Amino acid sequence: MSRRLDFSARGAAGEALFRWTCASAATLLLAALGGLVVSLAIGGWPAFRKFGLGFLTSTEWNPVTEVYGAAGPIVGTLITAFAALLIALPLAIGISVFLVEFCPRRVARPIAVAIELLAGIPSIVYGMWGLFVLAPWFAEHIQLPIIMSAEEGSFVDRWFAGVPNGANIVTASLILAIMILPYMAAVFRELLLTVPPQVREAGYGLGCTPFEVIRHITIPYVGQGMIGVIMLGLGRALGETMAVTFIIGNSHRFPGSVFDSGSTIASTIANEFAEATSDMHSASLVALGFVLFVITFTVLATARGLLARAAR
After folding, report:
1. Would you say residue 87 has pLDDT above 90?
2. How does this chain sit within the bilayer (predicted)?
3. Who is most buried in 7, 71, 132, 255, counting CB within 10 A?
4. Spatial distance between the Cα atoms of 132 and 134, rounded to a whole number of angstroms
5. Distances (CA, A) of 304 to 136, 231, 298, 308, 312
6. 142-179 residue pLDDT tens
7. 186-296-71 Cα angle (round to 5)
8. Residue 1 has what pLDDT?
């Protein structure tokens, strides 16, 4: 009897220790996140105090005159991230549906492993490939023919104007799409594998075609999870740094066309932080980091809101 009580006491102690360890880990994470936000806000406060709302609306970024406006990098970040998502999303869904529904199992598994490996390649590798391979090819075979064929002053001339060197908003979006595509496809595939076979077979038993089963049964079954994956992919595209820095052209002004150079918040910080010699320049870059944090947090919070709304 006493031995049983001893085991029970040791089990209760172990349970309490386990709960305390988990609570400590969660608290540590929240404390680190809170410290990050506070340090960014304090570090960027001199820029917010001097420029006010103009820091977010102005496109002038001039370290010589100590005038900083973040509108150009903010717009570049949003344009490249959403364009990358628009490119990657249908491809990721198509790849995952093919691997789960149509591809033979002995072939699907190696392809799925290859996609998961692609998701782990460092971003700088994608950036170098984009700089030395994609950008020259894009400039020679797509950008230059479009520019040469456009009539001066026409709609095509205005929307596709730019220096034909391949470093522009479109190629940066393509690189981002290539980077987030393996990650989204791999997670989509895992979600589709959670659909019970009986659910699909019930659809086929009612006479549905494969397309109808995927559209009306499979996709709605994992809809909530797909929203979360989409938002996480967008969050990764918003914060990507090195690959975009290589290929976007690094211009702080508003992009005037789809082939124009631009910049993102992350690329601006990566390019200039080591060269920031004045306090206001450093504060402006930290303020950019705070703005990026707010944008990413808003995207993820929106995802959680959509998931909660779908659950109701």
Report:
1. yes
2. Multi-pass membrane protein
3. 255
4. 6
5. 40, 9, 10, 6, 13
6. 888 888 888 877 877 888 887 888 888 899 999 999 99
7. 125
8. 56
DSSP state at residue 170: H
Residue 215 is encoded by which pair of tokens? 């559209």
Q: How far is CA 57 from CA 21, 288, 295, in A?
A: 45, 13, 15
Q: Minimal CA–CA distance to 102: which of 213, 224, 187? A: 213
Residue with tokens 């040791």: 10
CB-CB contact of 238 with 172 (8 Å): no
Residue found by looking up tokens 């820091």 in the block: 55
| Cβ pair 85, 70 in contact under 8 A | no
Tokens of 237: 């595209």
Cα(232)–Cα(240) distance, rounded to whole angstroms?
12
How many whole angstroms separate alpha carbon 84 and alpha carbon 183?
13
Question: How far apart are alpha carbons 263 and 66 in whole angstroms?
Answer: 19
Please, which pLDDT band fits residue 27 given cuts at 50, 70 and 90?
A: very high
CB atoms within 10 A of CB 22: 10
* Residue 304 in tokens: 């959680």
What one-character DSSP code corresponds to residue 142? I
Report CA Rg, the chain.
25
Q: Is the model more confident about 243 or about 79?
A: 79
What's the confidence (pLDDT) of residue 243? Answer: 82
The answer to whether the Cα torsion of 300, 35, 53, 79 is positive or negative is negative
Both structure tokens of 120: 């782990």
CA 40/CA 240 separation, integer angstroms: 18
| Mean pLDDT, residues 107-131 | 86
Task: Kindly state the tokens that stand for 214.
Answer: 């995927």
In single-letter form, the type of residue at position 236 comes to R
The residue type at 264? T
Say what the pTM is: 0.83
